[in-house]
Design brief:
about 325 residues, seven-stranded mixed β-sheet, globular, binds Fe4 H S5
Length: about 325
């Protein structure tokens, strides 16, 4: 197998692009795909400061690395979820990466700051762990991005993630979600702009990118992910992809090009009017936001995210 560009030995075949790449050309391919996503969807403007939501997994470390290489001023934010050794190890990978690049990693630990962990929070609020977890992470990422004056919040969602979410929304015709499923969500009502620069790269590609770049990451699945519906959607799409390479990317890109705008009006109409949470000040349709209610039920201490957090790692 030879690199499509230089004819040197290739390390990866990308069937949907009908191409094979050597290490330097694969790295260039990943960088080009991220740059293209940024340009196509106007994710970032020159000089903007980005906050990357970092989990210690391949996608978040890959997107952070690619942005730094593209010259973007990007800090990371790790949220400690208190999911046993899974969280401890994930945190170590995030710290090690930040130290290797001399990048700044901010840390908010749910147990230290709010006095609850995800397993307890989920039980207390009678929510599925991923629902309590997703809501907690979104809350902390949004608050820190805004309070620390970042222009944009970056997440590591890749093509497989976005195609699986789209698939799930289409299966149930959740049209108000379809109207909001974009690689860029503009800032509004107390929420920062959110962007997904990895939407042109698959999970296999972000993993390969980390390996060839020497980035060590958490390879274990989160122990609370069992039964997560998205894993099933991913498997279904992967089975189709094997039969006809490129289907996943066409499904997602075709949606953005030809269908997403049709659902926007509905998504807009369903949007609730938001006030401020009486406890933490973040936007909410009720008096107290869902996050503060969850913390309270879990026996923790709700309130604002501290703004003095964050430290710079040294290489
Ligand atoms: S960390 Fe949290 Fe994920 Fe674990 S509990 Fe679910 S949402 S699976 S990305
Ligand atoms: Zn090459
Ligand atoms: Zn609140």
């Amino acid at each position: 197998m030879k690199c499509t560009v230089c004819r040197e030995p290739a390390i990866i075949d990308l069937r949907r692009h009908n191409a094979n790449f050597c290490v330097p050309h694969f790295t260039k391919f990943c960088r080009d795909q991220v740059q293209r996503a940024i340009d196509e969807h106007e994710m970032l403007r020159p000089g903007e400061r980005a906050l990357v939501a970092v989990s210690g997994g391949k996608d978040s470390l890959a997107v952070w690395d690619l942005l730094l290489d593209l010259g973007v001023e990007a800090d990371g934010l790790y949220v400690g979820l208190g999911i046993g050794s899974y969280s401890d190890v994930s945190h170590e990978y995030a710290e090690a990466y930040a130290a290797s690049r001399g990048a700044r990693l901010r840390v908010v630990d749910l147990v230290e700051r709010y006095g609850y962990d995800i397993p307890t929070g989920a039980r207390a609020a009678r929510r599925a762990p991923c629902s309590a977890c997703g809501m907690s992470k979104r809350h902390v990422f949004d608050r820190v991005a805004l309070e620390e004056g970042y222009d944009v919040l970056v997440t590591g969602h890749n093509l497989d993630d976005e195609a699986a979410v789209l698939f799930g929304n289409v299966l149930r015709w959740q049209t108000e979600y379809l109207g909001r499923q974009r690689p860029v969500l503009e800032a509004r009502d107390g929420f920062p702009r959110k962007v997904k620069p990895l939407v042109r790269l698959s999970e296999r590609e972000t993993a390969a990118y980390c390996i060839v770049s020497g980035i060590e990451y958490q390879v274990e699945e989160c122990p609370m992910a069992v039964g997560n519906k998205h894993l099933g959607y991913k498997e279904a799409l992967n089975a189709i992809e094997v039969q006809s390479p490129g289907t996943k990317a066409d499904f997602y890109a075709g949606f953005l090009r030809r269908a997403a705008s049709r659902f926007e009006a509905e998504a807009e109409a369903e949007r609730e009017t938001l006030g401020s949470c009486a406890v933490c000040g973040s936007p909410t349709p009720g008096e107290v936001c869902a996050f503060c209610r969850l913390v309270e039920r879990a026996g923790g201490t709700p309130g604002p995210v501290p703004v003095e957090l964050g430290r710079r790692s040294t290489p």
